[in-house]
């Protein structure tokens, strides 16, 4: 099945409380910023990429990406970032029907993440597809039809905050990746995670 054009949205709006604050996407793994690693994996499949982050956008200036903040106040979580990405895509690429969301703190995302997710959604005739590994769902690594935008805005206004719960209500397909030799959806939430990711990068510099 032919892939449809897609916009990528890197979710980097979290507070990184377990890391003591700051931007996890700017942390380095194997001498390379996590954000650079994320972009390397999704850029070949996106007609455009936007970064969702709150606060001073200039801290991401070196990456040359548009930066959009949440339109929902009070740090409403990653669903607000997905909505911000949908809004941006609709405004700048109105012909596009899909966005892909990826977390900004996962340095080893699979290189085939976006094409597999989109193929899964299209084959299942679902408006979304999310990644899994080891039976665990990774709802931020997903593709979404932009036609869900109005419902997402309403859900956020009604207090919805859980990506998995919201996605399940609209019909979501799943694509699973193996956990060996490591979980490709390892996310850097703590200093211990950062150390583990560095060890993986040291063992296999090609990653």
Keywords for this entry:
207 residues; alpha/beta; Spore Coat Polysaccharide Biosynthesis Protein SpsA, Chain A; two-stranded antiparallel ribbon; globular
CATH topology: Spore Coat Polysaccharide Biosynthesis Protein SpsA, Chain A
Instruction: List unreliable stretches of 5+ residues.
Output: none
CATH 4th-level superfamily: Spore Coat Polysaccharide Biosynthesis Protein SpsA, Chain A
Order of helices and strands: EEEHEEHEHEEHHEH
Task: Please count the helical segments.
Answer: 6
Strands ordered across the widest β-sheet: 5-4-1-6-8-7-9
Taken from the alpha-carbon principal axes, the silhouette is globular
Tell me the span between the first and last alpha carbons: 29 Å
CATH architecture designation: Alpha-Beta Complex
* Helical content band: 25-40%
* Main CATH class: Alpha Beta
Sequence-ordered SSE layout with sheet pairings:
Blueprint (H helix, E strand, L loop, with lengths): L5 E6 L16 E2 L2 E2 H9 L5 E5 L14 E2 L9 H15 L5 E6 L9 H12 L3 E6 L2 E10 L3 H9 L5 H8 L2 E5 L13 H13 L4
Parallel strand pairs: 1-4, 1-6, 4-5, 7-9
Antiparallel strand pairs: 2-3, 6-8, 7-8
Describe this structure as you would to a colleague.
This protein has six helices and nine strands. With 207 residues, the chain is an alpha/beta fold. The protein has one domain (6-203): Spore Coat Polysaccharide Biosynthesis Protein SpsA, Chain A, CATH 3.90.550. The strands form two sheets. Strands 5-4-1-6-8-7-9 form a seven-stranded mixed β-sheet, sandwiched between helices. The longest helix is centred in the middle third of the chain and has 15 residues, at 78-92. It is globular.
């Amino acid at each position: 099945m032919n892939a449809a054009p897609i916009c990528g949205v890197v979710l980097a709006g979290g507070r990184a409380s377990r890391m003591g604050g700051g931007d996890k996407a700017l942390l380095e793994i194997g001498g390379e910023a996590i954000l650079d690693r994320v972009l390397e994996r999704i850029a070949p499949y996106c007609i455009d990429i936007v970064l969702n982050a709150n606060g001073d956008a200039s801290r991401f200036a070196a990456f040359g990406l548009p930066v959009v903040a949440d339109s929902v106040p009070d740090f409403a979580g990653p669903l607000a970032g997905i909505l911000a990405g949908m809004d941006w895509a609709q405004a700048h690429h109105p012909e596009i029907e899909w966005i892909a969301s990826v977390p900004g703190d996962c340095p080893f995302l699979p290189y085939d993440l976006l094409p597999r997710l989109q193929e899964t959604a299209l084959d299942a005739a679902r408006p979304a597809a999310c990644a899994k590994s080891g039976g665990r769902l990774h709802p931020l690594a997903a593709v979404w039809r932009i036609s869900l935008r109005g419902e997402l805005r309403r859900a956020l206004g009604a207090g919805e905050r859980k990506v998995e719960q919201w996605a399940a209500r609209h019909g979501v397909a799943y694509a699973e990746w193996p956990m060996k030799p490591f979980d490709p959806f390892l996310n850097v939430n703590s200093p211990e995670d950062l150390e583990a990711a560095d060890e993986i990068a040291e063992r296999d510099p090609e990653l």
